[in-house]
Amino acid sequence: MNDNYNHLTKQDGARYNSTLAGKNIRADLRKAFPGFKGFSVKKRSGSYTDAITISWTDGPNCKEVEAIVGKYQHGDFNGMEDIYDMKVTDFHDCYGSSDYVFCQRSLSVELKMEVGKRLNLPVMIDENGRLNFSLCNRGEEDLYRHELNSVSVKA
Q1: Could you say which of 3.40.50, 1.10.1660, 3.30.300, 1.10.357 is the CATH number of the domain covering 3-106?
Q2: Whether this model's pTM surpasses 0.90
């Protein structure tokens, strides 16, 4: 299919194989982020749908991970018509796919504090690791949240 996919496992004929998609997502993430070992890839199946959730702490940001794993989702929910629009490609038939692929990044207290220091903002973190912006104005809070979401920690 494509030389960029030599590290992936091909399907043996089953269509919409989310188990294989999960295996190939792990391989894609290892290739894209070779020094980072913190990804968790979990598959959930229901009566009519399945989903793969990729979760991790710190490391690459969500946009970087979504750029790698988004190709495994074979459609989208259309809320106007209350249907799931299938968009199955040759890639899905060959390497597996899922109805939904979600990315869920957590941030460590250390990273939250580091970003606050870098921006020179008075950020406080409570005992549960939640941010407290009581000493910031709204613009500073928005800047801080934007920076947290875009920061990428290299391994």
Answers
A1: 3.30.300
A2: no
